[in-house]
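Worked example 3 (structure in, sequence out).
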């Protein structure tokens, strides 16, 4: 069992520490407690000073592996000096006979001679068969000193026999002992353990160990999200992280019986270039991990947004056009994670070959019979090796580079997995993907066939991407491989997002997930050009990371690639249009008033044809669903369906041309007739409550519910009332509020919702003819079970009523909600206010974009109210840390805000709110509203309106 042979005297003066310990022993010979305190003080100073030097050296030379080795060496010296002190000065056991001595060994990652600043220290105390009476008390003394120094020590105290016995049954203990390294103490004990472990445990158990370690790795990946492209990756445990590299080393050490990973070159497992990649990946990941621990002051393994910027700075990354320093750093991180995946695949291929060679006679014959190589119909280049595609000869790719694309096509049509040796040779043949191959007609035909396959195109494209083929064959795609976007909205790197979008489209194409997005599944069979849609979905974000707008730049890329892929000019133009407009439908649906006719007219003018509308609808669904878990919900689906159906009606010429006044009169009559079981007086009273906007935009079913709700509140003499309804499929909950009208009503309701932790996505504001407000607030659903959600909504309704009645003070309840919540300091969103009079015929549309926070909507609506603006509807869209809120407003006489000076004032006041600056007018916001009936204020009768016909 080897000791660590590297020394780093610049980290710690070992002789000086020993001398100090000697002085402490003599100075406090008669008093144990002062001796212990002095010892702790000396060791604490040595540890802090040594780690600080290691941190500075990391900033100087940038080597993460060296940093981990320095800290490991420092830890070794502290333990060695402590061990000597305990044996010499505390227990007088320094002259114990060799057969009675203990050994102190490092295990796990520390056993490899590497230690991160915040890592646990895993120790194995080896006891002889005939231990001294001092042995266990000495170990206990050492452990208490280490714990008091603040180290997290994992430890085991065992004999060699116990280590061997436990290793047979416990794979974790077996892995730990595999990496045991003597720190100090009995060399004989350590050597005995190493020899017996090699002979009694390792010998002839390689395949079992490999199977266990790979199964353990798969389970670890599953828990961590099973993708190496999560934008807040776990550097230690995540896919493509340090643990994956360590697993390779454990397997190499166990199966090939090597002590140094460099021996894998001599054995032909890795090429010299691949081994260099192994070292560079290891060093980079260690650098990231060490910086994370130093920055956070703890063993933090998740590379979270709030430390990514600082680590990028520590590692020397700078901003480039189109990419910030942090995005460049994270792209490098994900490329390294991908390299780790490549090394794993190459390594597993070599292992499989080696294991096949080592099979004993009869087993080998049986294995060859059951897994015999079969020909693949129509292919001379590839064979079926036990359900996996393999090469018929090693020079398949050199003979015809098109085979680098063909292998994936053949695997797809024959539903074969990939033999690791085949993928290993694919990765080693990437230099054959030249401009000539990219322009090859057959290669492009095969690629489009893979992309538009009715089987599982995402799986094949993923294999192409992992092997490096996709980025080489389409260099524009190669530029976004491993590219992250520094925000909370996107959960994956750009290439991962695009592959997931293709997977969603493939499932829609196969009629799956109809319960999630029924309209997309219904529209897909009617799509005239599947190929154009699949190409658009694969390429829609291909221009991310450039200085120009990625939708515009992506359309240019599509126009270049279309002819190369063999698309017709019409197909190419369709793909370019879809990419250029791929965000339009989502933004219109989520940030515009879909009851306003001008919204539909403008959108229809951009779309122009039903086929484009269908394709854009499906592309939008794929894009949102592939962003990450929980981003798609029923409410977004409902908004998109509403926009689709309204636009379809307009494009096909079915939009009503009947004057608005007549349509409103007819709607009133329909409501009157629907209340047939009411008295004549009540029917007249409750039908006349509503103005045109209400009658034209609210469905009859909801009008009837509202009529019953208002009548019941009147009968009970309630000035304030709330009503709750849940929509499970739409993933939203509707709260209807009846209240005396007030300029700040929406601000108070929004504040009460914020205080209750409810996320508002939409608000419709109506005024009744008797001076009351009937406001419908839509909030995101939180519970899957209706009963639970109704209870939650009832509590929110109660909070709204309490605040409106003055029973609870709004500033206090918002403050209690905000207390203890971390602000998103990692992100910056430049506040923006856009004021438009062209998006609606009747309203001024105010759109604000900024960093989200608790109570923001309440503050913004309060300011709009202060500015004497009447809010007709509000549409709230959240993209991770960013929020886009859209308000449809008029002045108090129902006119648009046309004055430039007034518009400037509105923008300035809203920007002050977004920047969280003090606002004297806003600070006067009432804590609530007393609810007795009030005389109606002078209002424009229509606060919620569809545009004039």
């Amino acid at each position: 069992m080897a000791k660590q042979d590297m020394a780093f005297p610049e980290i710690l003066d070992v002789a000086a520490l020993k001398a100090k310990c000697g002085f402490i022993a003599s100075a406090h010979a008669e008093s144990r407690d002062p001796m212990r305190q002095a010892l702790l003080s000396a060791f604490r100073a040595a540890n802090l000073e040594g780690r600080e030097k290691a941190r500075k050296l990391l900033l100087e030379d940038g080597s993460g592996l060296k940093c981990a080795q320095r800290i490991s060496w420092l830890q070794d010296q502290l333990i060695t000096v402590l061990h000597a002190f305990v044996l010499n000065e505390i227990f007088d056991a320094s002259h114990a006979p060799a057969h009675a001595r203990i050994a102190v060994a490092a295990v796990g990652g520390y056993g490899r001679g590497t230690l991160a600043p915040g890592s646990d220290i895993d120790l194995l105390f080896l006891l002889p068969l005939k231990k001294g009476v001092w042995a266990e008390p000495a170990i206990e003394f050492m452990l208490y000193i280490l714990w008091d120094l603040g180290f997290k020590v994992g430890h085991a105290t065992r004999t060699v026999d116990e280590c061997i016995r436990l290793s047979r049954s416990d794979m974790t203990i077996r892995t730990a002992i595999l990496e045991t390294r003597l720190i100090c103490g009995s060399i004989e004990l350590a050597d005995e353990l190493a020899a017996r472990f090699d002979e009694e445990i390792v010998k002839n158990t390689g395949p079992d160990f490999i199977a266990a370690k790979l199964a353990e790795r798969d389970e670890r990946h599953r828990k961590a999200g099973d993708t190496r492209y999560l934008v807040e990756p776990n550097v230690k445990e995540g896919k493509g992280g340090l643990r994956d590299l360590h697993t390779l080393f454990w397997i190499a050490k166990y199966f090939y019986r090597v002590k140094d990973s460099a021996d894998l070159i001599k054995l032909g497992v890795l090429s010299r270039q691949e081994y260099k990649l192994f070292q560079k990946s290891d060093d980079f990941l260690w650098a990231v991990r060490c910086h994370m621990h130093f920055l956070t002051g703890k063993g933090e393994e998740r590379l979270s947004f709030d430390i990514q910027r600082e680590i990028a700075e520590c590692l020397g990354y700078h901003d480039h056009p189109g990419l910030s320093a942090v995005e460049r750093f994270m792209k490098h991180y994900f490329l390294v994670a991908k390299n780790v995946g490549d090394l794993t695949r190459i390594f597993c291929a070599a292992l499989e070959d080696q294991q096949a060679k080592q099979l004993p006679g009869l087993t080998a014959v049986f294995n060859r019979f059951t897994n015999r190589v079969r020909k693949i119909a129509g292919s001379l280049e590839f064979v079926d090796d036990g359900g996996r595609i393999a090469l018929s000869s090693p020079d398949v790719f050199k003979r015809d580079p098109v085979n680098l694309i063909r292998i994936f096509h053949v695997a797809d049509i024959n539903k074969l997995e990939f033999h690791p040796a085949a993928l290993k040779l694919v990765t080693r043949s990437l230099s054959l993907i030249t401009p000539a191959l990219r322009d090859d007609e057959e290669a492009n035909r095969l690629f489009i066939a893979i992309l538009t396959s009715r089987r599982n195109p995402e799986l094949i494209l993923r294999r192409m991407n992992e092997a490096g083929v996709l980025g080489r064959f389409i260099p524009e795609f190669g530029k976004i491989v491993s590219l992250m976007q520094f925000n909370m909205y996107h959960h994956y790197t750009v290439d991962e997002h695009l592959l997931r979008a293709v997977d969603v489209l493939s499932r829609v194409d196969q009629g799956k997930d109809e319960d999630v997005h029924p309209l997309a599944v219904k529209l897909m069979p009617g799509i005239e050009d599947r190929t154009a849609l699949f190409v658009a979905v694969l390429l829609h974000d291909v221009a991310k990371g450039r200085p120009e707008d990625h939708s515009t730049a992506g359309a240019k890329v599509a126009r270049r690639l279309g002819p190369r892929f063999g698309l017709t000019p019409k197909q190419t133009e369709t793909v370019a249009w879809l990419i250029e407009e791929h965000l339009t439908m989502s933004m219109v649906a989520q940030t515009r008033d879909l009851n306003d006719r001008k919204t539909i007219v403008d959108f229809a003018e951009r779309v122009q044809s039903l086929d484009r509308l269908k394709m854009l609808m499906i592309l939008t669904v794929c894009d949102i669903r592939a962003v990450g878990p929980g981003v798609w919900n029923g409410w977004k689906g409902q908004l998109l369906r509403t926009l689709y159906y309204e636009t379809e009606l307009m494009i096909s010429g079915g939009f009503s041309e009947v004057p608005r006044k007549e349509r409103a009169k007819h709607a009133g009559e329909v409501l009157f007739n629907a209340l047939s079981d009411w008295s004549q007086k009540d029917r007249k009273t409750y039908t006349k409550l509503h103005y045109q906007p209400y009658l034209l935009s609210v469905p009859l079913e909801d009008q009837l519910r509202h009529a019953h709700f208002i009548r019941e509140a009147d009968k009970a003499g309630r000035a304030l009332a709330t009503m709750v309804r849940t929509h499970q499929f739409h993933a939203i909950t509707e709260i209807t509020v009846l209240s005396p009208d007030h300029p700040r009503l929406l601000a108070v309701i929004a504040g009460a919702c914020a205080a209750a932790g409810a996320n508002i996505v939409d608000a419709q504001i109506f005024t009744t003819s008797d001076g009351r407000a009937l406001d419908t607030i839509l909030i995101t659903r939180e519970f899957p079970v209706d009963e639970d959600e109704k209870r939650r909504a009832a509590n929110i309704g109660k909070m709204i009523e309490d605040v409106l009645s003055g029973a609870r003070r709004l500033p206090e309840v918002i403050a209690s909600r905000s207390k203890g919540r971390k602000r998103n300091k990692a992100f910056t969103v430049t506040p923006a206010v856009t004021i438009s009079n062209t998006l609606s015929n009747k309203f001024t549309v105010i759109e604000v974009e900024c960093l989200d926070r608790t109570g923001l909507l309440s503050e913004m609506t309060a300011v709009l109210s202060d500015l004497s603006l009447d809010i007709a509807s509000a549409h709230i869209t959240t993209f991770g840390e960013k929020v886009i809120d859209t308000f449809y407003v008029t002045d108090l006489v129902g006119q648009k805000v046309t004055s430039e000076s007034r518009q400037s004032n509105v923008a300035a006041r809203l920007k002050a709110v977004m920047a969280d600056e003090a606002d004297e007018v806003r600070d006067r916001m009432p804590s609530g509203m007393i609810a007795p009936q009030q005389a109606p204020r002078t209002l424009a009768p229509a606060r919620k309106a569809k545009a004039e016909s």
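Notes: The first strand starts at residue 103 and ends at 106. Confidence is low (pLDDT under 50) at residues 357-370, 929-949.
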